[in-house]
Design goal:
The protein is mainly α. 73% of the residues lie in helices and 4% in strands. The chain is built from 6 helices and 3 strands, in the order ααβαββααα. A 3-stranded antiparallel beta sheet has the order 1-3-2. β2 and β3 form a beta hairpin. The chain is elongated, with a radius of gyration of 24 Å. The chain starts with a helix and ends with a helix.
């Protein structure tokens, strides 16, 4: 039954988003359902990114745990082979089901900082898309706020994505090295530098350049129209 919940949830989300977008579009007396859909989805994802940061902060410090990615997870499982999940009554760091429980404070702070940077990048990208759709609906698609939003999103995607992923991998390694096993302190220090932030930031900067060029053309068209009206 658990495998059936995923498509059901996806269908429910799609139906809700479509209904909200259609309602907003009709309320504004327009027919731009697709643009309203983008606006609703981008705004919802931006809100979820902010909510996700609060949830991660609570779980990181309340449950004192650091989840592991696949590359670090294989190393942790090799260290704890033959050791099932122990009881959680002890305050010592322990490994269980892909997570280091009772992780040290430095590992948790690194993990929280990493997720804050990654979620900030996600929020900025979604907010830029939301601003573009909102101003398009308002009839001013080349507003300067849209350009600024994409520039900020590009820098946050580049810096936040690279630094965030690097800190996340470091926090996982620090958490694994805190495990009370003979070879835990010999775990290789793993640092991952992703490539996706470069592509995402390039796309955001390209969008900013496109909207800036559109704003320039719009300003020139308005100037020519005023000059033409003056001649008439």
């Amino acid at each position: 039954m658990s495998t059936l919940w995923a498509p059901i949830v996806v269908v429910m989300i799609v139906v809700v988003v479509a209904a909200v977008a259609t309602y907003v579009s009709r309320r504004h007396g327009g027919t731009m359902v697709a643009v309203h859909t983008v606006e609703v989805v981008a705004g919802a994802v931006a809100a979820l990114s902010a909510l996700g940061l609060a949830i991660i902060a609570v779980t990181t410090f309340t449950n004192r745990q650091v989840p592991l990615a696949d590359n670090v997870l294989s190393e942790a499982e090799s260290l704890t082979e033959g050791n099932p999940c122990p009881g959680t009554a002890s305050d010592a760091p322990l490994y269980c089901a892909g997570t280091v429980m009772n992780a040290p404070l430095d590992a948790r702070l690194l993990y929280l900082t990493a997720m804050a940077l990654l979620l900030a990048a996600s929020f900025a990208i979604c907010w830029a898309i939301y601003m573009a759709a909102r101003h398009a609906v308002a009839g001013d698609p080349f507003h300067r706020n849209v350009i600024r939003a994409f520039v900020v999103a590009g820098w946050l995607a580049l810096l936040g994505g690279i630094v965030g992923e690097a800190l996340r991998s470091i926090s996982m390694t620090v958490a694994v090295r805190s495990l009370p096993f003979d070879f835990a302190d010999e775990t290789l220090f793993y640092v991952s530098i992703p490539w996706w932030p470069c592509l995402v930031s390039l796309g955001c900067f390209a969008m900013a350049a496109i909207f800036r060029h559109g704003a320039r053309l719009q300003a020139e068209a308005a100037r020519l129209q005023k000059e033409t009206e003056g001649l008439v």
